[in-house]
Amino acid sequence: MDEVRRPGRPRDAATDRAILRAARDVLLRDGYAGLSMEKVAAAAGVGKPTLYRRWSSRVALVGDVVWHSFHAAVPGIGRPGPQAGDGATQQLTTWFRAYASSAGDPRHAAMILALTAAAAESPHDAESLYRHHTRPQYEAIVDCLRSGVESGEFRADADLEAVADALIGSVLYQLLTRTGDAAPQRAEHLLDVLLAGLRPVTRDQPGRAPRD
Amino acid sequence: MDEVRRPGRPRDAATDRAILRAARDVLLRDGYAGLSMEKVAAAAGVGKPTLYRRWSSRVALVGDVVWHSFHAAVPGIGRPGPQAGDGATQQLTTWFRAYASSAGDPRHAAMILALTAAAAESPHDAESLYRHHTRPQYEAIVDCLRSGVESGEFRADADLEAVADALIGSVLYQLLTRTGDAAPQRAEHLLDVLLAGLRPVTRDQPGRAPRD
DNA sequence: CATTAACGTAACGATACGGCTCGTAACTAA
DNA sequence: TTAGTTACGAGCCGTATCGTTACGTTAATG
Q1: Domains identified in chain B and CATH numbers
Q2: Which stretches of chain A are DSSP H helices?
Q3: Does residue A52 lie within 7 Å of nucleic acid chain C, judged by its CB?
């Protein structure tokens, strides 16, 4: 997979890093609305064409910033269970604790919010952002839940995607409403309720509430 | 509470309605990013100062549009349980079904996404938007859950705010990731898991998973 | 009629978008 | 060495939006 050397002056890898770093700083300080290409270019000490040579738009740049920040600081974010030997319950718990805790870090919170803002304000960008930055993680969670069903840890009739939505969505909602201070405890408590609800039914306890 | 008539030409109530309607249409067609004050003014057949006389900023206008759209079309959105005689389980079910179903309507989806975009892109606006447009509903849900705890329908040790986060957040995440097609079923299934997890523990079934 | 304020029109300065052109630097191929 | 190609920083361009202002008109008060 060696890079094919093309004629002409090669791009400076240090410039890539400087831009990403500057964009991350601006995102932290001013939020997604406050991130302009000109501000990023100035902060990175580069010209605007240098930005547009690499990223076709503001959304694309922000997407890459989020991507790099996540993979630099939260290595296992894409894989819920680092230890394959653990049960699904333990894997899910480990991952969700890490995820909720990372959302408590302002650096990651800003990244998640930026992705959210980009997706929410423009339906067109939302699809591509989801495909590239969120779906792999989402599918890994569902896979983890599915393995828990196969091992008998979880109810077979549970809607696993609904559970994944609730896990990710609850953190997202907390970030949006700035209730994030109590996040770590709340993550633990949400796991309590969801894991209890996922437990296979016994004879004494029917699977559904009587009302319907 | 009669309006005190002040001297001078009074504001035209029809103009208010025309602006709100135009802003709603633009929001539906072009999303939050595509909503500009000039576009709204043009669509409403009104000058820009007329907009700024009523709303101090774009965010304020969008906030009011969401407010009016919700209260016009989803009357009970602020009060989970229309029938006070119902149990908390039934109240919660009724409300969440209505909420998830309304999110399936593109008109409401656009409103929720607009609020989300505004909150996500600017931390400053997020706080005031939350206070005025989301918190009452959120607190009503928590109150409903709390009444369920008091009546013995739900576990006393459950984190009710975590449950509320999960309910609202799951819908939000589905909207953001355009997985909203399966929303009605998923809402039902999430209720299944959460209500099962909220059920008070019995002697046969310990409250927590063994692993910790 | 005098006062007051909302109205539409038409600007304003500031800022950001995405693109473009300069002159220069860096690298490859002949 | 030389020509060709591409990246680079600096900066300008046209369009667009922001929030604001000035101005003349219209509609209500007293």
Answers
A1: 13-57 (1.10.10.60), 70-198 (1.10.357.10)
A2: 13-30, 37-44, 48-54, 58-73, 88-104, 106-121, 123-129, 135-150, 160-176, 183-198
A3: yes
